[in-house]
Amino acid sequence: MTDLAATTDPLPKPKRDFLPALLPVILALAMAPLIGSGSSWVTLTVASLAMGMMIFIMASGLTLVFGLMDVLNFGHGAFIAVGAYVATLVLLPLAGWVQADSLLVNLAVLAPAALLAMAVSGALGLVFERVLILPVYGQHLKQILMTTGGLIVAEQALYALWGPQIIPLPLPTSLRGSFIIGDVAIAKYRLLAMLVGLVVFLAVQLVLNRTKIGLLIRAGVENREMVEALGYRIRQLFLGVFMVGSALAGLGGIMWALYREQVHASMGNDLTVLIFIVVIIGGLGSIGGCFIGALLVAMVANYGGFLVPKLALVSNILLMVAVLMWRPRGLYAVTSR
Amino acid sequence: MTDLLTLAGVNTHIGRYHILHGVDFGVPEGQTTMLLGRNGAGKTTTLRTIIGLWPASSGQITLAGQRIEANATPDIARLGIGYVPESMAVFSDLTVKENLVLAARDGPLDDSRLEWIFGFFPALRRFWLSRAGSLSGGQKQMLSIARAIVEPRKLLLIDEPTKGLAPAIVAALIECFAEIKRRGATILLVEQNFRVAQEIGDTVLVMDNGKIVHRGDMAELANDSAAQERLLGLSLEAHQ
Fold first, then answer.
1. Spatial distance between the Cα atoms of A316 and A97, rounded to a whole number of angstroms
2. Fewest C-beta in 10 Å: which of A244, A266, B143, B174?
3. What is the 3-state secondary structure (H, E, C) of chain A?
4. What is the ipTM of this complex?
5. Are B122 and A3 in contact (CB under 8 A)?
6. Angle at A222 (CA atoms; ends B122, A203), nearest 5 degrees
7. B203-208 β-sheet, strand order
8. How far is residue B58's CA from residue B8's CA, in Å, rounded to a whole number?
9. pLDDT per residue of chain A (337 residues) written in tens, 0 to 9
10. A228 at interface of B, judged by CB pairs closer than 8 A
């Protein structure tokens, strides 16, 4: 048989692109001398990481939906708001458990609230995909119109069901306050947010890189047609990814509501632009890019807000412009679309 | 010899363009059938119509006695068809191993079959854990073909596998196709290079303007230079 090994040139070693992953570290270190006070820098950095993780949880589903299904879902914010409202159905009636001075009891009420929020948001995602998105696959303009309409309907439905008033959602007692280390105060809830964000990131990475479903998703982001020609029904995969993405948005919704200690119907809409900025910065379809993008957005917002408060209003847009000038397809581009 | 695949009166439209005009042919079981023709004759459209990527607007497609023209692509593929597109379409973000794991839809990779594939394409063993995107064009073609044969398939649809490849790699591909046939697979292969077609093909179909204009034995066409010039014209001169 022909020995092709002799006829092939040596393969260039794949270049590992670490620079985007190092950006948050570089940015944090660069900000230290500008901020001056060590304790302020630690507080701002922890706040950025916590905020970034929550944004990542909300945006991760959207980037997969965008990359895999080529769907512009402007209604993603609906899942965030619905997740937060559904959580109040558990957290408010069980206010006694929320107020209890026991981490175990607090978590015993938070966990089912989060699971219910994810289940309802995931189910809403199923309805969204079947009713609004299925008829407009491949038609971006119609997708924008349909999903924006879906967001408006969801928001108005929340107003109709819960009323127009903002619902206060106090943090569980054991998650209030801060750990004091020297002269640095680290909010307990921010640590929990970081932990949950990290777990979600690792779980998604594990699924994408270590399972056949993950291989199918990564392959589908790149070439849906070839995945189908290999015998896989990618429509069902699309639906599964859409539901998981919606469920993650619901989880992000309850976390964001607890962070802000309030729930209101327009919270999803308010976050939509921010989430799209993260997805675009990260590169469509890239979970790693989405993670880095979320951290960068949060850092720029926190450091920028501290150093030049007026700049905070446009900091995310400036960040996106800078990243796209450097890498027009985002930090870690996956899909060729 | 019975036909494994038959097309009867197949028409295909892409948007408002009518590409295939009543295509009729059969692919005999266990043989390699070459589909030849000029650029734009409809060869790639024929393969994509069979696998369902551009569904037929009318006509019948039958695989082993079963009508498939209304089926979705995954269902057609699961009837035992392997497809190697002209673009190769390897998943560049996945490693060589991951590309093959994905193609082995019926279970884990079969080691003995892998060894058989590595016999033709040793480069795939060498770059087993490398990203497919970093492979050369020839190596990507090997991977694309390996993906189609990583599990036994009844029918292989292969679109211009030798295009732009070095002679040594083309020789390996020819050897590979002959071995696949010896193992009992049926092959429908689009090829522009008549010399390669001559070497591989048992039967031949020639397309022009979305229709089959010739069908017969490859050996007969190979020995009839007048027919070659009449049927293949410029493409023959350009690729010989």
1. 38
2. A266
3. CCCHHHCCCCCCCCCCCCHHHHHHHHHHHHHHHHHCCHHHHHHHHHHHHHHHHHHHHHHHHHHHHHHHHCCCCCCHHHHHHHHHHHHHHHHCCCHHHHHCCCHHHHHHHHHHHHHHHHHHHHHHHHHHHHHHHHHHCCCHHHHHHHHHHHHHHHHHHHHHHHCCCCEECCCCHHHCCEEEECCEEEEHHHHHHHHHHHHHHHHHHHHHHHCHHHHHHHHHHHCHHHHHHCCCCHHHHHHHHHHHHHHHHHHHHHHHHHHHCEECCCHHHHHHHHHHHHHHHHCCCCHHHHHHHHHHHHHHHHHHHHHCHHHHHCHHHHHHHHHHHHCCCCCCCCCCC
4. 0.92
5. yes
6. 95
7. B81-84, B155-159, B186-190, B32-37, B203-208, B211-217
8. 9
9. 444 444 445 545 556 788 999 999 999 999 999 998 889 999 999 999 999 999 999 999 899 888 777 788 999 999 999 999 999 999 999 999 999 999 999 999 999 999 999 999 999 999 999 999 989 988 889 999 999 999 999 999 999 999 999 999 999 999 999 999 888 889 999 999 999 999 999 999 999 889 999 999 889 878 889 999 999 998 888 899 999 999 999 999 999 999 999 999 999 999 999 999 999 999 988 899 999 999 999 999 999 999 998 887 789 999 999 999 999 999 987 755 4
10. yes
d(CA A225, CA A233): 10
Residue type, B49: T
Residues in chain A with CB shorter than 8 Å from the CB of B142 are: 4
Q: What contacts A305, CB < 8 A, 6 or more positions away?
A: A311, A312, A315
Partner residue opposite A4 with nearest CB, options B85, B130, B169: B169
Q: Is B212 on the interface with A (CB under 8 A)?
A: no
Beta pairing class for B186-190 and B32-37: parallel
Tally of CB atoms within 10 A around B3: 18
The residue of B93, B116, B175 whose CB has the most chain A CBs within 10 angstroms, and thus the best one to mutate to test that interface, is B93
Residue B194, phi then psi, degrees to nearest 5: -65, -35
8 A C-beta contact, residue A315 and residue A300: yes
Give the DSSP H/E element, type plus range, for residue B239: helix B225-239
Distance CA B134, CA B161 (A): 19
Using CA atoms, how far apart are residues B160 and B140, in angstroms rounded to an integer?
13
For residue A18, the model assigns a pLDDT of: 86
Task: Check CB contact of B78 with chain A, cutoff 8 Å.
Answer: yes
Instruction: Name the token pair of A303.
Output: 């450091």
Please provide the distance, in angstroms rounded to a whole number, between the alpha carbons at the two ends of chain B. Answer: 31
- Please tell me if residue B104 touches chain A, with a CB cutoff of 8 Å: no
Domains of chain B, each with CATH number or no CATH: 1-80+154-164+182-240 (3.40.50.300), 87-152 (no CATH)
Residue B4: how many CB atoms within 10 A of its CB?
22
- The pLDDT, as a whole number, for residue A13 is 56
